[in-house]
Design a protein that fits this description.
single chain; alpha+beta; three-stranded antiparallel β-sheet; 23% strand; globular
């Protein structure tokens, strides 16, 4: 959902926005890339490699057909207030 919201974002910001740890949860991103839900892109800046991600068409389709209707039925802020 964050990738759809921001279009393209680097790995550090994506993990931060999602509340995940870069080291512990990187395999989640790798799995999503492997499943074709997101696209990983590498960009070289001098001696550093910046890793960016964007949502794939398959990911956008799943977001629109499954996750968006779920969010409409069970909004996060409502669940957070109940829990």
């Amino acid at each position: 959902m964050k990738l759809c919201e921001y279009s393209e974002i680097n790995q550090s910001k994506l993990m931060s926005y999602c509340g995940l740890n870069n080291v512990k949860h990187k395999e989640i991103l790798d799995d999503m890339v492997h499943k074709g839900l997101i696209i990983r892109m590498e960009e070289t800046w001098g001696s550093k490699v910046i890793i960016n991600y964007k949502i794939s068409e398959k990911g956008r389709l799943i977001l629109n057909e499954i996750l968006a209707p779920y969010e409409e039925l069970f909004p996060r802020n409502e669940r957070e207030q109940m829990g």
